[in-house]
Write a structure and sequence with these properties.
Blueprint (H helix, E strand, L loop, with lengths): L1 H11 L5 H6 L9 E6 L7 H14 L4 E6 L28 H4 L1 E5 L2 E4 L13 H12 L7 E6 L8 H6 L2 E6 L3 H16 L5 E7 L3 H17 L5 E8 L5 H6 L4 H4 L4 H16 L12 H9 L3
Helix pairs in contact: 5-12, 7-8
Length: 300
């Protein structure tokens, strides 16, 4: 992969002027489909869903990159059973080879980009650092068919540009009142910002009937606010019996417990999403996703 990777980077970047970058934009056929996984609050299971979605897409034959964008507090790797050697801070360096060495292979068709943990500098990037990071991320769009982005929780200034630029957002929440209130806040901000993509609701750690009620409540609230985007409820995920054990032994949950209630529910959710959204060109735009993030964030 390294030769292809370096060739793609040289082809895409070469001289660093904006006109050069525009001329080298990958075509729609080359560009990845980007999925953002969001939550209103921490602890809803967002990273768990991100890791599962990435793994299953890879097993479906897609070439997938899981970008752990909860910079400085990343933990999606725990659900993949790996220990990353490098983190995304390498991309802040002006080094052609850093973009290759930071990628962590998980298994065939799935790579992981670690956002770092316990690194305060990654949570407080300057405008120049954000610009350099997004420029580095730009070229991944033609190396993968799908990029799954595990975002930080909430609606902070470093999260919103990613959300608003993504044609598809998975909003992961729980059925308790506090989690639903935070999920409602995310929907409210998306409505205020005139988001134009699709929001998929996933209710984690919930029985089916309770999940349906929670999703219906969020849908009603969005309708009252005249949401300009489509909201699709994909389903609920039961409380997992095997996940704590898989995490304890640093093993992939779905491989250890393929018939765990949560694993079965997750596969149903993915199947529904794939069936309803099989035309990938509907979710790709002319402008690069990461260039849209750069513009929305005001990171010159």
């Amino acid at each position: 992969m390294s030769d292809k990777f370096l060739f793609a980077q040289a082809k895409l970047f070469g001289p660093s002027s904006s006109s050069d970058m525009a001329e080298r934009r990958p075509t729609l056929e080359e560009r990845a489909r980007v999925l953002c996984i969001a939550s209103g609050k921490g602890g809803t299971g967002k990273s768990f869903v991100s890791a599962f979605l990435s793994s299953q897409l890879a097993k479906e034959g897609k070439k997938v990159l899981l970008l752990d964008a909860d910079f400085g507090l990343s933990d999606a790797h725990l659900y993949l059973g790996i220990r990353p050697k490098n983190d995304i801070s390498l991309l802040l360096k002006d080094d052609l080879h850093a973009n290759n060495s930071v990628i962590e292979p998980v298994f065939p068709q799935l790579d992981y980009l670690y956002g770092g943990s316990g690194l305060s500098q990654l949570a407080q990037l300057t405008s120049i650092q954000w610009s350099r990071l997004l420029k580095s991320l730009f070229h991944y769009e033609q190396l993968y068919s799908h990029i799954v982005i595990d975002l930080a929780a909430g609606i902070g200034s470093q999260v919103l540009p990613y959300l608003l630029s993504s044609p598809e957002v998975f909003l992961v929440t729980n059925a308790d009142s506090l989690a639903l209130l935070d999920a409602y806040a995310v929907l409210k901000v998306l409505i205020q910002k005139q988001y134009e993509g699709v929001v998929y609701l996933v209710i984690n750690r919930s029985m089916a009937q309770r999940g349906e009620k929670a999703a219906a409540a969020l849908n009603r609230a969005a309708e009252k606010m005249q949401a300009p985007f489509k909201i699709c409820y994909l389903g609920s995920i039961s409380e997992s019996m095997g996940l704590p054990e898989a995490l304890k032994h640093n093993r992939v949950f779905l491989e250890m417990y393929p018939y765990d209630p949560a694993a079965i529910d997750l596969r149903k959710i993915l199947k529904k999403w794939l069936e309803e959204n099989n035309n990938e060109f509907l979710f790709k735009t002319e402008m690069s996703y990461f260039m849209k993030v750069k513009q929305r964030g005001g990171w010159a």
